[in-house]
Amino acid sequence: MSTTFPFENTYATLPAQMFTLIAPTPVARPDLIVKNDALAEELGITFDLTDLAEVIGGNKVPVGADPLAQLYAGHQFGHWNPQLGDGRAILLGEVVGQDGVRRDIQLKGSGPTPYSRNGDGRSWLGPVLREYLVSEAMHAMGVPTTRALAAVTTGDPVYREQVLPGAILARVAQSHIRVGTFQVYTARQELAASQALFEHVVARHYPEATSPLKLLDAVIARNAALVAKWMSVGFIHGVMNTDNVALSGETIDYGPCAFMDDYVPMKVFSSIDQMGRYAYGNQPRVAIWNMAQLATALVPMMPDQDAAVEAFTESVNRYPALYEAEWRRLFGRKIGLEDAQPEDDALIHDLLGLMAEDGADFTNTFANLHTDAAQDQFANREAFAAWRDRWSARQDDNFAEVMAIANPHVIPRNHQAEAVIAAGVAGDFAPFHEMLDAVTQPYTPNAKFAKAPVNSEVVTRTFCGT
Ligand code: AMP
Ligand code: MG
Asked: How far is residue 273 CA from its own chain's centroid?
């Protein structure tokens, strides 16, 4: 018996300059940490424990795989980098799930590729456990995201500031095609590759998009909805470079990402984001900047460049209205309004203003807003009581039901993830499994995992996965 995937690969048939065929580099002693049976079933994958760790570890290439590393480029913190690419990840191939959707199966941390630059192509255990927890939590909260299929420790050391245990994550995505995947061919003036990529992306994600302009419109609509969703759960991506923006509209590349505990509108966690470019409150603006880069990358495909620039600019300029409508809908639901209207914006903003002033816990304030516990989040109880009177006057009968499915009780909090990682490094994965169980049932009250950190537990900095 062996682990099998119903591979049906298409990226490997695209023009050869778009990727490098390369197999994962074997590891010493792959050992399974976790597997996602439900996801495997949805994708038609059969796990077999006799070789699953070898497959995820990259020691055994499964039948039907066409392992490759994808080329892309990107703007990192606003600076153009002409060549990035999968430096520590390898695409095994694609499967079409029970829902008819094609998805990539990728190993992350699977060894060096021609795009590794100075990196070792590896990942240590911490980022693997973190991405597993956060991506599965995001999925459970209904946020479009890459998924986690399985993870192993490799038995090899990884050298960072310390020596750490190596690990590999098997990741699933509707595709790993990024804004930076278009950017690289535009920069190199390789129009045939741009055209092939365009046709691939349209067939795969946006069959309704019959032109580059329509593709841009469609990506913008999904991205605006995605970023509004992030905002509604207090998620900070942390490294919204154009190479980390998936055209599928999924959240991708969980590096220094974090969920906020107390509500700070310009909250930043990432140790490398010194200017706060990717602060919580900047995410919608940065997303528009990223969409403008996609527009720029698509323009050369159009026959009339001047007309294209005008039309593409208009498309990007529609982002704020799309985002605001989605933001209103989602935050309206967080206070129990099924169909919030522009005149409700003040009610939402005034609550957020009080939360910011008093450092209220973002998740717990919304989860408990209709209970007596809510006022404990506010130092200025009178101001909150006055807000609550205005809110009562606006409530419909079903507000509590609307709130119950709009407000998670459990998010993957930093301090809990760090404790789980520390235990994992010491060889104990029981805390990881316990936390995974909690974060994948986000709407279920949970005394342990819904707890905000006490002062001594607060995590203020997060780090890139490298
Ligand atoms: P990221 O900031 O994680 O999106 O990564 C940016 C680029 O650096 C991508 O091209 C990655 O593949 C590459 N990279 C990150 N970490 C490593 C590593 N340990 N080895 C090789 N390449 C890496
Ligand atoms: Mg990346």
From this structure: 18
Is 84's C-beta closer than 6 angstroms to any atom of ligand 1? yes
Pocket test for ligand 1, best of 84, 171, 271 (most atoms within 8 A of CB): 84
Closest by CA position to 216, among listed 315, 349, 139: 315
CA 337 – CA 407 distance, rounded (Å):
12
Whether ligand 1 lies within 6 angstroms of the CB of 88 is answered as yes
Q: How far is the CA of 28 from the centre of ligand 1 (A)?
A: 22
Can you tell me whether residue 201 is helix, strand or coil? helix
Beta-ladder partners of 93: 105
Residue 463 near ligand 1, beta carbon < 6 Å: no
pLDDT over 70, % of the chain: 100
Mark whether 243 is an active-site residue.
yes
CA 243 / ligand 2 centre spacing (Å): 6
* pTM exceeds 0.90: yes
pLDDT tens profile 369-392: 999 999 999 999 999 999 999 999
Q: What is the pLDDT, as a whole number, of residue 466? A: 58
Q: Is the CB of 284 under 6 A from ligand 1?
A: no
Beta strands in 3-146 (DSSP E): 19-21, 31-35, 68-70, 74-76, 79-81, 89-96, 102-108, 123-124
Give the number of whichever ligand sits closest to the CA of residue 159: 1
Residue 1 has pLDDT above 90, yes or no: no
Ligand 1: does its nearest atom lie under 6 Å from the Cβ of 28?
Answer: no
Sign of CA dihedral 59, 65, 66, 70: negative
Q: Are 231 and 385 in contact (CB under 8 A)?
A: no
Tell me what the pLDDT averaged over the chain comes to.
97
Residues 6+ apart with CB under 8 A from 44: 5, 6, 95, 96, 97, 98
Tell me 442's DSSP state. T
Give the separation between CA 66 and CA 423, rounded to whole angstroms. Answer: 36
CA of 116 to the centre of ligand 1 (A): 7
pLDDT for position 144? 98
> Which parts of 249-301 fold into alpha helices (H)?
283-298
**Is 87 exposed, middle or buried (CB count within 10 Å of its CB: 0-12, 13-18, 19+)?**
middle
Q: Which residues surround ligand 2, an ion (CB under 5 A)?
A: 244, 253
- Four-point Cα dihedral 151, 415, 271, 349, nearest 10: 110
Ligand nearest to the CA of 89: 1
Residue 332 has pLDDT above 90, yes or no: yes
